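Q: Sequence in, structure out?
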Amino acid sequence: MAVVGIGVGMTMQNLVLAVQNSVPLSELGAASASVTFFRSLGGTIGVSVLGAVLANRVTADLSTALHVPAGQSTGSTSALNLAALPPEVQTIVHTVYGDATAHIFLISAAVGVVGIIAALLLKPITLRTTIDLEKKEADSAVAR
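A: Exactly. Output:
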């Protein structure tokens, strides 16, 4: 978690700065809002997809571990109510959830590697040292 936090913290503001540097000053707000919107959208989609993968993996592995034929229910006892389950089944549920969580972390790591490669492929640009207001001032001087 610390590695993810440090990595995200060190790159997040740099990407915002790169976007803000590549647009005219008049479009700075829209560019910043777009970065925030797509970051939120990506997080939402990521959580949804990984949640679906977790649920699917837990269901499939739990059915396999408990020898339940496909399409049949595992009973009226919820797998999340561990206190109501026998100790042997509790161990199976713990193992299945642990394996499914490891699987979604593996998927997240692959997505992270793709993100690192994409960041490395970004074209290096020099930050601008001026703002584009000078052009507008020149235009208004001509109009007088």
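The radius of gyration is 25 Å.
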